[in-house]
Design a protein that fits this description.
Shape: flat
Radius of gyration: 29 Å
GO cellular component, one term: cytosol
Distance between the termini: 23 Å
CATH topology of the largest domain: Rossmann fold
CATH architecture of the largest domain: 3-Layer(aba) Sandwich
Protein name: tRNA modification GTPase MnmE
Largest sheet: 7 strands, mixed
Keywords: Cytoplasm, GTP-binding, Hydrolase, Magnesium, Metal-binding, Nucleotide-binding, Potassium, tRNA processing
CATH superfamily of the largest domain: P-loop containing nucleotide triphosphate hydrolases
Number of strands: 13
Structural class: alpha/beta
Strand content: 15-25%
CATH class of the largest domain: Alpha Beta
Cofactor: K(+)
Helix content: 40-55%
Binding site for GTP: 232-237, 251-257, 276-279
Strand order of the largest sheet: 3-4-5-6-2-1-7
């Protein structure tokens, strides 16, 4: 493992969100965390207290009382970072928080960098790199599924899968390396047939992991869902009803929406990022035309399409033609007929040929539950078992898995061509390196800097 960092100093940061609140938490970590806290705390002697205890007292700058606080102690190695950790819970005034932090800095602490607490936890062996990244995912999770997947990864589910694959490869790599030491004696310690079988099995698992990223990305980042249709089909009204707020301007005048409007909600644990777009029509209005152009751009970037139409204004044939025209990539699409409150039974029957049609009244909010269910089914997460299935959600992990797969391909090709053992061993080492990058068994300062600087300060 390659890394360097200052871990002999004591760091401090505010661990709660900025702004006025009932309480704020100030976190310290490092060898002197307890002694620095003791120097400003009036109450029990913190140096004599047991780990995982909480103590009431005051924070004082000389004789000046800054606040009444609760101090939580976590004595090394029984803490998040495996160092001495102190958490000071004070009142949530920005003034109080800054006064306490400045006092702790004067007593010898330094301000923590972004993600430095979690970085120290990784460097001190609390968890591996994939688990550390899952901490950030857990903090940013905004749906039941994203929370569930992040929790599983933080507890090591994905890491165990990678470590198991790597351990099996390490065995064969060591056998081939051993053969190199006996190169003149023509001995074979690594059974080539077993190696081929192992590589094929590992590649099959990697393919499944890579395939899971499509779902994992949806769980982590939400489903970009574009609402398209002709002007005055009711797109803005539908968006407002789904969001349960007046997000978009609703007007009888065609072409009201000139740009796209975006917001998100969670449906059955899945985050949908809804985008209301300008109505699709030929127009001489330059601003409206730009809106239509942006609609087409958003369509190309979406993962799910809602095509909304006014069933009183179009025929089933026109709707089907528009569905085909708008969706050349064959993305999941939900056809939604609006204004059923104005439609006769005969009119409804005329659209029966549209596959998977959902009929609603956006104005009255009728059948919105049926629409939401259709959206969830289109995302195809119904059979997903987040408890047992390993799901990849991180683009860095995808890149490492692709590199591993390519290196294993080279091993198989080398075995087929009968190339020398040193070249086969080199390809196996490439695969091991790429797998090791995922869990942090192989790291560089640049890699760690790139990962942990994306964390919030205080975590």
């Amino acid at each position: 493992m390659i890394h360097s960092t200052r871990t002999n100093d004591t760091i401090v940061a505010v661990a709660t969100a900025s702004g006025m609140g009932a309480i704020a938490v100030i976190r310290l970590s490092g060898q002197e965390a307890i002694s620095i806290s003791k120097s400003v705390f009036k109450g029990k002697d913190l140096a004599k207290q047991a780990s995982h205890t909480i103590h009431f007292g005051t924070i004082r700058d000389g004789e000046k009382v800054l606040d009444e606080v609760l101090v939580s102690l976590f004595v090394a190695p029984y803490s998040y970072t495996k160092e001495n950790v102190v958490e000071i819970s004070c009142h949530g005034s920005d003034y109080i928080v800054q006064q306490i932090v400045q006092l702790l800095l004067k007593r010898g602490a330094r301000l923590a960098n972004a993600g430095e607490f979690t970085k120290r936890a990784f460097l001190n062996g609390q968890f591996d790199l994939a688990q550390a990244e899952a901490v950030a995912d857990l903090i940013s999770s905004d749906s039941a599924l994203s929370h569930e997947v992040a929790m599983k990864q933080m507890r090591g589910g994905f890491s165990q899968e990678i470590k198991r694959l790597r351990a099996e490869l390490v065995h064969f790599a060591s056998m081939i390396e051993l053969e190199l030491d006996f190169g003149e004696e023509d001995v074979e310690f690594a059974d080539r047939d077993q190696l081929r079988t192992l590589i094929s099995n590992i590649q099959a698992i990697i393919r499944e992991l890579l395939k899971s990223f499509e779902l994992g990305n949806v769980i982590k980042n939400g489903v970009p869902t574009v609402i398209v249709g002709n002007p005055n089909a009711g797109k803005s009204t539908l968006l407002n009803k789904l969001l349960n707020e007046e997000k978009a301007i609703v007007s009888d005048v065609p072409g009201t929406t000139r740009d796209f409007i975006e917001d998100e909600i969670s449906i059955s644990g899945i985050t949908f990022r809804f985008i209301d777009t300008a109505g699709l029509r030929e127009t001489t209005d330059k601003v409206e035309a730009m809106g239509v152009e942006r609609t087409m751009q958003k369509l190309s970037q979406s993962s799910l399409i809602i095509y909304l139409f006014d069933m009183m204004e179009v025929t089933a044939e026109e709707v089907q033609a528009e569905l085909d025209r708008l969706n050349p990539k064959k993305l999941p699409i939900v056809a939604v007929a609006n204004k059923i409150d104005q439609a006769s039974e005969e009119k409804l029957a005329a659209f029966a040929s549209i596959d998977g049609l959902v009929t609603i009244s956006a104005a009255e909010g009728a059948n919105l539950d049926e629409l939401k269910q259709a959206l969830v089914e289109k995302v195809n997460l119904g059979k997903l078992n987040t408890q047992s299935q390993t799901i990849v959600t991180n683009l860095r992990h995808v890149d490492s898995l692709n590199k591993t797969y390519a290196a294993l391909d080279d091993v198989l090709q080398g075995l087929a061509l009968g190339i020398s053992n040193d070249l086969v061993a080199a390809d196996i080492r490439r695969a091991l390196y790429s797998l090791g990058e995922i869990t942090g068994e192989i790291t560089t300062d640049d890699l760690l800097e790139n990962i942990f600087t994306k964390f919030c300060i205080g975590k």
